[in-house]
Amino acid sequence: MALAGDLTLDLVRDSLIRQEDTIIFCLIERAKHPLNAPAYDQSYASFPGFSGSLLQYIVQQSEAMQATAGRYENPEESPFFPDKLPHSFVPPFKYPQVLHPAGTSINKNKIIWDMYFNQLLPLFVAEGDDGNYASTATSDLACLQALSRRIHYGKFVAEVKFRDAPHEYELAIRAKDRDALMNLLTYENVEQMVKKRVEKKAMVLGQEVSLGNDGDKQARFKVDPSVVSRLYGDWIMPFTKLVQVEYLLRRLD
Ligand SMILES: C=C(O[C@@H]1C=C(C(=O)O)C=C[C@H]1O)C(=O)O
């Protein structure tokens, strides 16, 4: 969603809520396949002129192709391999200038990548190997992009919170007081609601749907709803808040 100048916290929250659906659908798609370890093994395949795993190959090549089609011109998008990107060939679109320009330099994709592969993936995919490595890596890319977009959306969250209470934020920014900024931007009640809502969405969006009588069937979900709640509580929201603090620290530059 492109945000106009009349950015409000409600609009920003609406976008975050819609992005929950995207993230859960992406996880459901990835969970179709087992772990498929060779996709992440550097020694499994060699691509001409490229060193890395099949997954890295798919991510870097896809990002490069999407960059030529203008994906990273949008301030809501952050690439995983920013050093390797070609220029866009499409006519520039006038995205509303909402963020302070220093926001562009914030990119937390390294910690998102590590969290996704080292912590999250083993929690929601089965062990095993079905050989579908290209499709698996494509699903991983979709998950990574959805998580990255959501977490970097913290820049917009921070901007709107700053505009709503500039004096309070300015004091903490000038004192470079990260703890004070964290306290100002944290809403515990919102976070509890988010965790409950994503757990419920994982149940609704990931349920088995059949035409028979479902009443006596044990509920089975394509992705464990408690994992989705944990993903938000342990990683997505803390990382989004980290983006918010880092953005605010640069907001008066
Ligand atoms: C995004 C917000 O800011 C903070 C971060 C949250 C998140 O990442 O979902 C939720 C609540 C706040 O603690 C918000 O207030 O909506």
UniProtKB/TrEMBL annotation:
Its main location: cytoplasm. One of its GO terms (biological process) is chorismate metabolic process. The keyword Cytoplasm applies. GO terms for cellular component: cytoplasm. It catalyses: chorismate = prephenate. Pathway: Metabolic intermediate biosynthesis; prephenate biosynthesis; prephenate from chorismate: step 1/1. This is Chorismate mutase. PROSITE patterns: CHORISMATE_MUT_3. It comes from the Eukaryota. Its EC number is 5.4.99.5. It comes from Citrus sinensis (Sweet orange). GO terms for molecular function: chorismate mutase activity; protein homodimerization activity. Transmembrane segments: none annotated. Keywords: Amino-acid biosynthesis, Aromatic amino acid biosynthesis, Cytoplasm, Isomerase. Residues 133-244 form the Chorismate mutase domain. Pfam families: CM_2. The lineage of its organism: Eukaryota, Viridiplantae, Streptophyta, Embryophyta, Tracheophyta. It is found in: Cytoplasm. Gene3D superfamilies: Chorismate mutase, AroQ class superfamily, eukaryotic (1.10.590.10).
